[in-house]
Write a structure and sequence with these properties.
With 243 residues, the protein is α+β, with helices and mostly antiparallel strands. It is built from four helices and eight strands, in the order βββββααβββαα. The protein binds zinc ion (2 copies).
Length: 243
């Protein structure tokens, strides 16, 4: 489903050592027969469907864990089911200290969510009333709808680093990445920091190696991130929203 098309994924240098949550889109206004329906804890209707499944990878290797995003098609409620091991870890860490106690509460709430929104065996597919996932986009060059091929949500030490949406245009044989606004802020922040270090080294370092080597490398990385950000902002116009 992904990978065969020519892409312009540069890959951020800082992406190493990141935890990635990748998702294949599971629902596009319609369901495959094997998808389960759950009863909604908010409205009690059997109308909850899986919107996304995020598969975790660490340095490109799958960890086998996944986060499942659900949405109730009756009342619009959303929730995510997290790996049980992670929730139990939260509870254990949360109970160690007073300041970490909210983690225990969060872990407990996450653990209970599965049972509060139980699977209803054999329940019919609800009518899809609420959108799941990112909005539909089209290709500005050929006017065809583009398909979402991959979504990557990155975290660094538990801090969200933004979400990348990879879209493919089959007629144009191209894939392009559109980044979340938060991702743009994070990369701009990173470029400013690295660029600032580069300028500081060029201006004030006394050793030529640090001055021109270190400063040059820092500025090159800054330019690379800035170029990637510019490309991804432009991609919002190359693959505009379908209205
Ligand atoms: Zn509901
Ligand atoms: Zn196209």
């Amino acid at each position: 489903m992904q990978g065969a098309l020519s892409g312009e994924r540069l890959g951020t240098p800082a992406a190493l050592n990141f935890f990635h949550w990748e998702a294949r889109r599971r629902v596009i206004l319609g369901m495959t027969a094997d998808e389960e329906v759950r009863r909604c804890a908010s409205c009690s209707e059997p109308a909850v469907v899986l919107a996304f499944e995020w598969k975790q990878t660490f340095n490109g290797v799958s960890t086998g864990s996944s986060i499942r995003d659900y949405r109730c098609q009756n009342c619009g409620a959303r929730f995510s089911l997290y790996p049980k091991a992670g929730s139990i870890t939260f509870i254990v860490i949360g109970l160690l200290l007073v300041v970490t106690f909210p983690m225990a509460v969060l872990g407990w709430l996450r653990l209970r969510r599965d049972g509060r929104n139980p699977v209803v065996p054999g329940a019919p597919r609800p009518q899809m009333r609420f959108p799941t996932g990112p909005p539909a986009r089209k290709c500005a060059a050929c006017d065809n709808p583009v398909s979402l091929t991959r979504v990557t949500r990155s975290r660094h030490n538990g801090i969200p680093m933004g979400t990348e949406y990879e879209y493919a245009c089959a007629p144009c044989q191209k894939t392009r990445v559109i980044e979340s606004v938060w991702g743009h802020l994070i990369s701009t922040f990173g470029a400013v920091i690295v660029g600032g270090i580069g300028v500081a080294l060029l201006l004030w370092s006394h050793t030529p190696g640090w001055r021109f080597g270190g400063g040059g490398v820092a500025l090159a990385i800054c330019l690379l991130i800035a170029a990637q950000t510019a490309t991804r902002v432009a991609n919002r116009f190359r693959y505009p929203l379908v209205d």
